[in-house]
Amino acid sequence: MIDASTRLICLIGDPVEHSISPLIHNAAFRLMELNYIYLAFRVKKEALNEAVRGLKSLGVMGFNVTIPHKIAIMEYLDEISEEAIGIGSVNTVVNHKGRLKGYNTDAQGALNALEDSGFEVRGSVVTILGAGGAGRAVAYGMLKRGASALYIINRTLERGLELANRLRQLFSRRIEALPFNLESLREAISHSKVLINCTPVGMYPNIDEIPIPPSLIRKDLIVMDVVYNPLKTRLLREAEKRGAKTVYGIGMLAHQAALAFKLWTGVEPPVNHMLRVAYSALRRGKGGGNAR
Ligand code: NAP
Questions:
Q1: Are 89 and 19 contained in the same domain?
Q2: Reported pTM
Q3: Ligand 1, atom 8: nearest CA belongs to which residue?
Q4: Which residues lie with the beta carbon below 6 Å from any ligand 1 atom?
Q5: Of 214, 159, 157, 225, which is closest to residue 189 (Cα–Cα)?
Q6: Do 139 and 150 form a contact (C-beta atoms < 8 A)?
């Protein structure tokens, strides 16, 4: 029941109408009998500063941040975690007694999803497609967990090079940025144990698109797609056809939400329940392209 002591958590972004985060978090609050509510607010770019000041003075417990505010939010916070600084963006904010601290739960969310499926990142060579928000977080997470080398393949090579340069300053590992073409894909994937798609290629409604030629998928490759709508992208379907192991984007989605839940409430999150809620929301057709 919502009453005068109900605590508010929210999402700010633009757009937010397709987000399934309210469904995931409210289901978790109900299950754990926590008197919290999670709402989504559409905040225009020019209103971000004002919105953050408003949330702070209302004393919200925290909030999630999504496109287009994940980088811009950083200048309005009192503190930022080392990991969020390393990644270069914030997706979760916690109100610590009036001081707003930014975190990024995407990197650990991706790692948890991979490790949930029984895969060890330490010592592995990893290829990441994309150098946007998801790509940056996943790349950081893989190196932090001990990936031995990283290939970043991005459509705009400069953006990939920029990310590789930044990561080399943080991790002394072999980190290479390559252009998005057949030659680079062949070279990087042939040396890798793990391939992670961090581009929106294959995302609803373009469900027949695939970021790489299926013939590059080997049986001994682990293939992860951060795209979670559809649940099984064409990349994952082709990987399964070839006997490769697969990790679905919905796992990362549920894990990043669970990590944020823990940061706000201090309570151990019901991860499997959150995963089930996300599954059924997506099966019911909730969540357009960018459902975060
Ligand atoms: P973003 O910041 O806009 O970055 C998109 C990246 O994909 C860029 O590197 C871009 O390359 C590349 N790209 C876009 N279209 C491409 C194409 N047609 N061919 C090749 N590369 C292309 O987006 P994002 O926030 O990283 O999100 C990417 C995807 O991850 C979305 O589908 C999003 O829903 C999903 N995601 C999932 C989770 C999860 O929890 N599972 C979390 C975050 C994001 P350029 O640099 O050349 O533009």
A1: yes
A2: 0.94
A3: 132
A4: 106, 109, 130-135, 154-156, 159, 180, 198-201, 203, 226-228, 249, 252-253, 256, 290, 292
A5: 214
A6: yes
